[in-house]
Structures
1.
Amino acid sequence: MNKTYHLLTGLHFAVCTLAMIWPGALIANRIEPTVLGLPFLFFWYILWMLVLFVGMWIAFVVRHGGGRHE
Amino acid sequence: MSDSVIVVGITLVYLAAVLWVGLRARNQESSSLEGYVAGGRHVGVVILFFILGAEIFSAFAFLGAPGWAYQHGSPGFYILAYLSLVPITIWALGPRVAKLGRERGYLTQGDMIADHYRSKPLGILAGVIGVLALVPYLTIQIAGAGLLFQAATDGLVPFWLGALLAFLVVAAYVFASGLSGIGWTNLMQGIMMIAIAWFLGLTIPERLYGGVGEMFAQLQQAAPEYLTMPGATDMSWGYFSTAVLVSAFGGAMWPHLFMKFYSADSGESLRKVSVFYPLYAYLLVPLLFIGFAGILVFADEPLARADTVLLRMVMDVANFSPWVIGLMLSGALAAAMSTGANLAHTAAVVLVRDVFGPTVMKGASEKASVSATRWSVLGLSLIAYLFALINPASLVMLLLGAYGLLVQLFPMVIGALFFPRLRRASVMLGALVGSVAYLLMEFVWSSPLGWHAGVWAILLNLLVVAVSQHFSQPAAQGPSLASRHH
């Protein structure tokens, strides 16, 4: 795997981590607007869990392809 | 009275089913060391996913997450954040650990450290710290099971009996089937937990407020401070953030997590598990709902212990039938037992392989090692059960202390995996300084800026490693010498 791949994966991890703690979560520290009935800060965490999942999924497919091979 | 009998009946059926699955999982491999400890190194994606999920998702998450939401409000997202970030470590370290384990026959953390740094005492030390951290952790699961039983059956099953029942089941299938038994029961208990958590998490706000959205709307009117940081208890961003970091990234130093990397059938499987791992963390969302639901319900008479909020909501407030209470008890027991099984198994493996192996059991046969590990599962479970009966408060201190020391192994492990140039003296000095600093901050002074002490300790640890690496002379040791070029 090349450098760009590792850089992008690392960046994805860093962004997701920082979004869930200081300072990333600061911008979401509010109740309005509510999304799906949830206060915004609660929704923010649910959103970033999804972003983390999608990013890792893409990284996985790029690295290993869809199927079961090395 | 008859209600409690129904609750007990459902739970006993559940325990019997877990026992049956766990004992049936026994196969020929369970008698070899690699089979008993690491499932023969070919555990596939689905089972691995549920094992790694169950390990992190303990009684603490099941009762503690709603407790945090109830007591603090938004700081409870700490649990959500750190559980979702755990897979980053699995992704980054797991495949490399699995590969080294396969090539060099490692089964524990101590194996890897002792071999890489050419130091048996270092491996023994890692083992001792591991056991010291795992046994109190196991005790907490056992005590959790006892408390749950007692509360959910209105005392029909007392604490000592509930704890005993749950952990006899666990000890029996771990003794007989090793990792294979843990895998299949974790799958079953994981599904149970997810189903119960979502059912309760959606039903309780529906019954009390008419829905989740309606519940948060009422909270916004009556107690908006719970819905944003710093929450109702004024938790600082500094503590919140550093606690997330220590739990998310230090967590992989727990031997029961780390050792599962060896059992994966491939690095690809470990990566696939980490991809789906954040979805497991969604299980916390309904549990947090239950905690938030408790804020207004118990506004006038706050609960003495926040982590009883789930129990109180289900039993006293939401007016569920005993059938639902029985299922709730089974789901919560699943959280305690599925983690406890891993803890008992790992503590026994570490004790026999890292501590006894190079000392009193030098040169023992594979058969003797497996047998010693099995009996250690029973012995350590018994010790943890007795601790739970005495219930000394110092246990939490022991857990905190030992976990803090485990995290200090981080640079040592990273060195063994990725930086062969790091020297034994540097990582040992770093771990020593980090450990002392952690213990002082946790138990003697307070931590600067109100941050989690683990973060300061690991920063100091890394600093010492870097300085020592820069100034000390490379000694003639280890495989690292060949790769040095300056």
Note: Residues 123 and 331 of chain B are 37 Å apart (CA to CA).
2.
Amino acid sequence: MSAELFSVFYQFADVFAFLILSAAGLAIVFGMMGVINMAHGEFIMCGAYVTVGLVKLGVPLAIAQALAAVTAGLIGVAVEYLIVRRLYKRPLDSLLATWGLSLIVTQSMLLIVGSSITGIGTPEGSFAIGGYTFSTYRLVLFACAVAVLIGLYVTFMKTRFGVMARATMQNAAMAKALGARTGRIYAISFGIGAGLAGLCGALYAPTMTLIPTMGATFVVESFVTVVVGGANVLLGTAPAAVFLAMIRMALNASYGQIIGQIGMLFAVILIIRVLPEGLSSVLVRRGR
Amino acid sequence: MFKLLDGPQTLGRGRTFWSCFLAVLAAALIYPAFADSYDVGNFSYFLIWVFMALGLCLMWGYGGMLSFGQTFFFGISGYAYGVLAINMGGGSTTIAALVLSVIIAMIAAGILGYFMIWGGISGIFFGIVTLSATLVLAFFLGQTAGPEWHIGTARLNGFNGMKGMDPLTVGDFYIEGSALYYVMVALIVVVYIALRMLVNSRIGNVIVATRENPQRAEMLGYDVRKYQLFTFIIGSGLAGLSGALYTSWGQFITPSSIGLPAAAMPIVWVAFSGRSDLTATLVGSFLLLFGFQTITVYSQQAALVLMGTLLLATVMLAPQGFVLGVGKLVVDRWTGRRRRGANPALAESSRLQSDEA
């Protein structure tokens, strides 16, 4: 019995980790600046490629993954400085600009690197409970997702930067008047968002085929998690991921991946009809 | 009724504009007499996509709803045409298949639009929900390779796509080559004129008022949701028309015309052309399609990189759109600025302000 229960938890953890890791970066950028980064998938791809490249050079996997996340973060800061910064007053235009960037990056990668490179294989290691065997790496991913959530909580709730960032999120003009350097906060937040996307790619790199268009496999999950989470991403993202993971897990188990994804989309469309502001609006109202 | 052709919501009016319009139309009509049939076929292919661009222009430029789901409805209608044409057995029924598949796309738009618009989704979320639906449809169709995936006798065939449906046919006559070209030109003229009349009509004014300020329009007594849903259905239905025509043109359709990067193309055309005007979109989309096709012959990736660059450049350098900007410059030179201060200029300047806000 406990084996079955653990199996259910394991499947939930798998989907939850995927949702959190793919959405966290997008959510931070959206929450801070109201900008949807359409090149999110490309930052994920960047993280994956850097990881695989470094591992092939002989760097240990964990270090390669950390370096990949940092690389994506630095590229993110550069993108913010060159493109997004000029479009803060026009969130829809920044979405279009990053989409243009995404097209350029994906197709250039296809031209330069070719359609796929050999992967590095999932780290071995599994354990058995009852009659079932589970891959250890999937639980590592879950642990990473939880760590990302805790890390974000600490960064935004317990540090000086977090206070400034939340002030900027609420009222950028007022925060600026009170001495917060909003431009720098935006740049750092965009960097964190891109870095988290890179981390997502780095963590999933060993488990999937690497192609320049791999970002597309993550964007639907990250979009719907952010939509369901709502405007207050610090409050909304984690509950949204829990909720969607439950739906997804139930459907995956009985009908397979693609029906799981379709079902999740239908759930999202129903939710926006009932709760257009997302789950965070309910949580905010409760909190008052 | 013809007063609606020249209204405040469309650029290009008066004798000069319509003379140019007729000249271009005449050139388009005699074109097949001078070109070889391969080029005529290519031209029809460009024209297929123009409907989708006009639909997006209506929704985004006039209605303020940035839909990333044009290829979603393109795909629904394209596949529907295939399924219907195969199951109903070709011949003149293909015309019915065309009409039905566009209606199916419009019904899908009605359902999706209802949930989004009545849920109060707007702006960025409107875009990413429609894009999510688009990508999920592409993933779904991509994994339908097995023989169990069929509707009637039509196999969906996964990534290889559906094929084997008849092209548009009347009796025993396949509408192909220059016949298809003339059908396309006629359809575009009808759609263009109809959209011009729509946006200049009373309904069009409400659609534009809703884009400017939904709350204000609502306070003035309009149920803006109905107007938005109407705009969304028409715009998406035009994408459906493109889809059905595409399937009939090539007698195949694959999931890659739905997913990324295909979903970005309508956005690039309309943004580059100038979303706030139908004529600019018509001209600009055609130019981009022509350019894209010319480069695709050498390298599809390079063509897509160029499209991405154009989108980025448009947003950074000319948010109103390049074709519209050039067009306005030409008109200003032409008329020697003597119309400044007159009513049309006023309408234009107010539109510009609202876009910057």
Note: Residues 2-262 of chain B form one domain.
3.
Amino acid sequence: MNSLIILPILIPLLTGIILIFFSKNIPVQKLISVISSLLMVLSALYLAVAVYQDGIQTMNLSNWEAPFGITLVSDMLSALLVLTTSVIALACLLYSFRSIGKERESFFYYPVFFFLVLGINGAFTTGDIFNLFVFFEVMLMASYVLLVLGGTKIQLRETIKYILVNVISSALFVIAVAYLYSVVGTLNMAHISERISQIGQPGIVTVIAVFFLLVFGIKGAIFPLYFWLPGSYYAPPAPVMAMFGALLTKVGVYSITRTYTLFFYHDTGYTHGLLEILSIFTIIVGVIGAIAYSDVKKIIIYNVIVAVGVILFGVATLTEESLAGSVFYLIHDMIIKAALFLLIGIIVKITGTSSIKKMGGLIHQYPGLAWTFFIAALALAGIPPLSGFAGKVLIVRSGLESGNYWGAGIVLLSSLFVLFSVMKIFINVFWGSPRAYRQQEPVPAKWLLAAPAVLTAFAVLYGLGTEALYPIISLAAETLSNPEIYINAVLKE
Amino acid sequence: MKTNDLILQTVSKVILFLIVLFSLYMFFAGHYHPGGGFVGGLMTSGAIVLMLLAYDIKTVTTILPVDYKKMIAVGLLFAAGTAAGGLLFGVPFLTHAFTYVDLPLLGKTSLHTAVLFDTGVYLVVIGVTMTIIQTIGESE
């Protein structure tokens, strides 16, 4: 047993609780939250190192043996995701300090922020399907608060939609878990996998698999269940938007990846065929949205949908190489989406509008912002040697190898359109003649730029260090493609 | 309109203590019998709500000058602290410990760390319920 595994969950929990006591003392809140975010990043880093060196880490909560109690399991994939989440949370937190405003800060913005991180880290770490639901709920509760906090008209409207969609999908989630439990009689994910392979995935389990796809598809915004996302993610301020766009949908994607590699891998012709078709449609819809809109926020939000499709296409192909590609792309996308959302947050703050037609010439006044955005945009599209490249190469190559020329072609083509959509932002916002913008208050652009600049630097390093990182990523993919490794680590047989 | 709530006020003064006592009984019964922090907390907040009905928010806040949002935090701290305490002793998160001791008057009594955890639940339930009810009540 290793106590490290609980720390990325425990630290945000305790921080959130302690911050409630200081709800009116904002400087203390900031100090505590920075310290504990740093601790969280460190513990996540140690955890990732421990997983890399000693294999999968587990912890049986309450000291109940594996199939009976709740088990926390940290394999390479979840350790990497927890680490990425912690880093992004730190960046968004630092960005919030100068942009979120007094009203939100004194009404529990920081505590709720940490509860959100708690839910995300928990969902990535848990090895129990019902506990996954619980962490989803923790995360969703926090996201409801973050979405509505501030109480502007658009926020209230979108929060109602968001809560409605998520309450329904949570209800479906419980029903799906209940169906699965009634068939296999266990909730421990490793044990479920073992039981399903014993009974050889009869038809009912395939039905449950599709049901799970429906549930996680709503959270992860795949076609045709993405309908709520463009509206809801549009409403909150930039750091919240970054947390949502970079992390929340990825929890859904992670859950699909986990269930479709660990549980439902016996009837791939049906389940993964379906996932493949849906992922391709998700890419197409995302690309259409990204090109069609001339609103910076909307363009980036539709790019979130494109990325979900690309990652899931790799999962659907289900070879070790394609899974490695998906893991590569997943982490890349979390980092770069957070950076982009924070960057457009600055742009919107400076110009006071989010329509690219009303902007122009920002490069003269804010060259740092412009070039950071440029690099981030290239990385998003996957221009070598930046971070999006390696993942896409692996996904496309394995797609071609498995004979899915259409899918691989669409993934390739989508990069081109993604590049077009972000370059549209770059050209319209940064080039041209500068305009006069009315700002209510001066924008601390240098401070705000720090967080996304560091994230972009991470993305660049992630791209340059692909070769060095490949063993780590392929370890994650190996566990995904061989469920026995996961099962043995949890049940210790 | 001025309502005559003399009977309600007089009765609730007496009933209040009975409810609180019973809720404490329920709370301590919780580990081996039906009950526990959740239902105990609900019952205690029921008592406070009765007071709110019989009198008004101002009177109740002078009697119980508690910030219920802080109470949630204290409760969470109890629960999370008990859960995390196990880590210091090298056992997994949430592991509990218990022992039996002979106390004067009570005889053989089991002391269980789950009570601390349940205290947390109790406080959180009161805090959340009262925060919700006060927030709704205040707007009138």
Note: Chain B touches chain A through 15 residues (CB under 8 Å).
4.
Amino acid sequence: MEIRIKGLIRNYYSEGKQIKALDKVDLTIPANEIFTLLGPSGCGKTTLLRCVVGLENPDGGEIMIGDQLVWSSEKKIFVPPEKRGLGMVFQTYAIWPHMTVFDNVAYPLQTRKLPKEQIRSKVRKVLGFVQLDGFEGRPATKLSGGQQQRVALARALVAEPKVILFDEPLSNLDAKLREDTRKELRRFLSELKITAVYVTHDRIEALALSDHIAVMRAGRIVEIGSPKKIYFNSDHRFVADFIGRANLIKGKVIREEGNHAVFDSAIGQIVGLNSQKIAPGQEAMLCIRPEFMKLATTEVGEGKNVFCGKLETLVFIGEAYEGEVRIGDTLLTTTIEPTEDITEGDEIYISFDPDHCFLLPV
Amino acid sequence: MFKKPSLTFSLILIVGFLTVCPVLMLLFGSFSEGLTSFGSFTLDKYIEGYTDPILREVLLNTIIFTVGSALVATTLALFLAYVNTRTNLPFKFLFSIISIIPMMIPHILFSVSWVLLLNPSNGILNRFLMQMFGLDGAFFNIYTLPGMILVEGLLDLPIAYLIIAPAMRAFDVTLEESSKVCGASVLRTLFRVTLPVLRPAILAAAILVVVRSLASFAVPSVVGMPGRIYVLSTYIYRSISSGFAADFGKAAAIGMSALVASIALIYVYRYLTSERGKFVTVSSRGFKPTLLDLKQYKFPVFLIVGLLCFVLIVLPVLVLFYTSMLPYSMVPSARAFAMMSWNNWIDVLKDPISLLSIRNSLTLGVVGATLGVVLSIFVSYVIVKVRSKASGILESLSFLSFSFPGIVIGVGFMWFFVQTPLYGTIWALLIGYIATYLPYGVRPISSAFVQIHDHLEESSRICGASTFYTMRRIVIPLLVPGIVSGWILMATMFVRELSLSVVLSRPGSEVLAVQILHFAEDGLWGKLSALGIMMIFLSSTLVVAATLIGKKLTRMEVVDT
């Protein structure tokens, strides 16, 4: 089911000051996709999610879920959360401690007054789906964090909602478990054909899970795109920096070359993607990610985007080296193969493909 | 759920009336000539009260009594807490018994049982030891300051234990381990690391015991007064109970200093138990301490713990029951058992005033606890879920009475009720009880509210449940355990209440503890014991009934699905 949000406003008041948690947000979340709201804490992503669910009332705008208008400030329409037919997984899981696993999962069906036999078979089916067969009679508090998380997921899914919402569901798990659960969640959701809205501040989670990502900052949506688009060729400096490690180099566009542009910077001329068509003469910023830099200890011949510098620091982190290369006054971060035989202080040549770096407006 | 600002406001009014009114009345009363001339400003009562030559001795007694009780209770609690958390002593369940069960035995009965055992003329234990060892005089005279300190210290042991044991459990063991790594012995580590780090908790426990023994009336009246040893609470009692010459102005003037001392001590206590007062030692990491192997000391240590259990729980009930069956006090013997009968029980059940006191106490327990719990639910809701500036005021107000010495606040209430038609009725007692024991309801219920994270309600709404359905299936079931323990605490407190009742109770509004005190003053130990056992039975019945109803309410939840 598609979700359409128009001009959504939500203000908070703290010590007499107005804080715009949502500042006229327009957003369409396509049906049957995993859609992620990503941003630093306080950017408004959770507020947006809570408005969609109905736990918070916006100060202006409209929300449509499918063809049902669930909120409209103008038309004074408010559909309460229990009538929106959604599923949600909370950061705290919100598992009811006084109930068994069965009762927790059966709850949404009981509120819909389904016959007991049907409730039992549906609960059994969904518990099987999240791999909790045989846990029905267990008190909900006697479960591990990961298991509680799956109970929360089963409860959100059992009534077969058209939309399921996640509010940072993995942030209470430890690092290793989080990685496993992320993969599992990806598998569950891709099997389900369901619209999923996922809120997180973790960029890796967002990249790994989503079909589309909306990056938010200060109550606004900055950019929407597929994970690859946002990673490889973002339109916005904040997004480029937030979604992954990035070297940002200042300079000026000299001329356009098809999709690319030649860019003049402190380290020399660089050719990079110019999908936003920044005109020659304009100030711009070039973004190159550390893992796209190639290194050589001897000169690799004439080519585009080849620079010579000095390896200033080199840190071994297991899967790779992290190096810092100084070219004049500019310090670039690179990722180096762990098997490479180099040491700090070496003279080094770095090069990168014009398709792997991109220009951003300042 | 409610219109919040007006709810908070009306609660502040109600709780404010309950807790601030008696204090103000006490203050104004202390500047008045007597109950009939309220509001006339005079310093006479202060001058009269504080120049009384006996007062010096009373104050000295009070200090020795409170500090001594604190020493006894804290030392024993520290020992028990250490043995429980740090050693491999078997039968650890004894510790949870020690910390809970004694609270079910009313203080006045506990004091009476020790008088029956150790009074100088015919104390059972004294007589027994005299016969055994051919002593001329009593082995131990309970009617002395050491006797009072012993009984009060034992009575306050559970509360001291409940403060010290959790601190001991939360203690970061690596601090001890690093001391051992540095080469210190077990004892050296205990005195140089463990005890100093736990100092805030130990001090907090000691201060609380001082406050409670300052407020204590049962021990000073039953154990102290026969030996003419007066402390502040009995001194106040004497000035209001002497028939026609009852002097409430003087009682209020003296009571003011007890109240001020008590409030100041509670302030220190709250500072010590707040986050600021604590050392940064409580770690959330789940390290299990390595248990100290007691080896050959295992049996002696176990004997001490077992003896404490026996002395705190079994002995008082046993002594009372034994005495209730006999016409007069005697050492257990074949003759004594031959003379046993139910006569005392029958006498009590025929005595109209005893019956009235049973009825009154039962009414006060059930109705009072129910009203008190309802008020506590609203107060806790505002304190935990509304969290505004006004709810902060409400929180302070509702915990104010925690520091009230019962007899002093009773005098304050007296000044108020005299001017209302409630004077001399059990409704005056009801209002006084709820005001004084409100924290006992608010504490468990507000921690139940804390447990209900907003997400638990919100996820219910998203699952399709209405507000009402959410209340029924999520909020109420999660609150029930807190409500039940709040009700039990209040009901048992009300059934046994003595220090407030001794001031407010009048002919017609007698309650159990006051009737028992009268029996003690008249030396009617057999009747007293029979009524006492009935009192214990009554409050145990209330506890069991409340627990069963609570279980049923939670079980309904499961059956329902």
Note: Confidence is low (pLDDT under 50) at residues 277-286, 557-561 of chain B.
